[in-house]
Amino acid sequence: MSRNFQQMLEDVLAREQIRVDEPMSRHTTFRVGGPADYFVEPETKEELAEVLKLCRNEHMPCYILGNGSNLLVGDGGYRGVMVALNKAWSGISTDHGRIRAGAGALLSAVAKQALRNALTGLEFASGIPGTVGGAVVMNAGAYGAEMADVLGRVTLLTPEGNVLVSDPGELALGYRASNIPGRNCVVLEAEFSLDPGREEQILQRMEEFAARRKEKQPLEYPSAGSTFKRPAGHFAGKLIEDAGLRGFSVGGAQVSKKHCGFVINRGKATARDVRDLCQEVQKRVLEHSGVELELEVRLLGEF
After folding, report:
1. Catalytically annotated residue among 31, 98, 153, 176
2. What pLDDT, on a 0 to 100 scale, did the predictor assign at position 3?
3. Catalytic residue list contains 176
4. What is the rounded distance in angstroms from the CA atom of residue 74 to the CA atom of residue 303?
């Protein structure tokens, strides 16, 4: 990468906000992935807009990173700019039954805020490892509920650098999908519209979900959660198990013995191990059941 681009970045951000050749294994829940050419941490919407404008003008690929909980970056790394929305974007506030949270706020933290304010509706999100921004973009969900059920207004940054406030109905929220990436917008903040509840009942529901996750999910290993989308009329984990793939491994990557819908890093997996395992699972499930599994995890970079 040319030094000129780094100098341009330094015109926009302080040096401590820019890292070069940053290993993405530090920033994804799979704990794998090679270096990103640039890893930047803008702290204001103005800085974010300037970084995105610079990348666009210089034809430099960029990716908006939250908690890295739905991302597999190749061992060869990412030739471009990882734009991390971290601490500066993690504010959470409550006003008249509505919670506002920055794109970088962890969903678990927002759910705890709802609990503290006796607001019900976000219990399902208490164990989702992602951030608000990523959860809105992919309409994250669990236990029969999803973000679309509780979202109020969403504040977006447009490609032109303008701030746009959208209602959920304008975001085309579907199963693990929205129109936000297609519009090249970035989530800055989301508002959640919740109902009054009783704190002890909300806590009990969260604890029930946590117990179910602990019992059924391989939480002790790095993973990206549910690896495949749920096919219509089927469950991905059941299809994988029926294809005889429980515990199936490629290198250090494995189909979890505890829950076949999870691909895990048993400790020394490479990104290529994970990718190759996923491809083999897709191939064998298609051969066995005729159902084509689609990855829920985003693949990025050079494998």
Report:
1. 176
2. 58
3. yes
4. 4
